[in-house]
Amino acid sequence: MRRKPVVLITGASGEMGHGLVSALSQEHDVVALDLKECEPELTKMCRATMVGDILDSKLLERLASEYEIHAIFHLAALLSTRSEFSPEAAHEVNVTGTLNLLKLAVEQERRHSARVKFLFPSSIAAYGVASLAAKRAAGRVREEQCLDPTTMYGCNKLYCEHLGRYYSRHYRQLAADAPPAGVDFRSIRFPGLVSAFTVPSGGTSDYGPEMLHAAAKGEPYDCFVREDARIPFMAMPDAIDALLGLMAAPAEALSSHVYNIGAFNPSAGEFAALVKQAFPGAVIRFSPDVRRQAIVDSWPEDVDDARARRDWGFKSAYDLDRAMSEYLLPNIKKRYARA
Ligand code: SER
Q1: How far is CA 56 from CA 50, 62, 175, 311, in A?
Q2: pTM
């Protein structure tokens, strides 16, 4: 008897998981995996939730035998700031963890004779520019430019993109029983994300969401980058829609495994000004942490997402003004009014 296929989401309790579980569960049976217990409202939307580690091979074997998995959204990762405190542990989670999931995908394909879609959030951290002058000169970077990341997280993401391409096109290429078609690996290099419902932890683009949530709670905020620090950001609903859009794209339309997407790129000072406009009493001070600032300085100030627009019709719905007025502010105000 064929079982109903499921979509597996790792890191389901994290910053992106929240929105993704809600969106995917409307059309798919979702199995959620995370180190932390999922919130009850998310659990209700899932066919099953599991608490566990992507490094636990026994757990992954159990998952593989219990479910027919036809797509994997592999969100679990240690973000860039946290990874710099324990780079080897980050490598283990970010690279070995991804390898484990790619292996699971290959095994599912063998068992069920169907390609498994593997959606992977990569990051602007995959880029690295050598200096502020180089950052300015690079402007909107294309996918193949400036690939010298300075963080363990960035190195991990870039390498995992390559692993995905390998599992997609070259897996066991010399073996007599090499699979006829590889994993259907698709990845997006996300900018910093801003959600009304979740605050990231352990990232370096966190100053954006942190200053907004602090202001909404009436707390002062010490921003760890300079006012002129500039990287691309995106509102969470656009990020979720992009993952769903890339998932839905016909394989023949995709000319690459890796896509930039962009929306807006305010400087930290410009973002702070908008936050203060919305919360007039907000106290936002700038006290840059030289080393975290250096990481932000190594990321591009903007990305060229022409490839995503051309291949699968990506288009962000939220520019910064609309993100603030229609998504972030109404939801954040409601959220902290209730708290
Ligand atoms: N938001 C991530 C971080 O700051 C970048 O992808 O680590």
Answers
A1: 12, 10, 27, 36
A2: 0.97
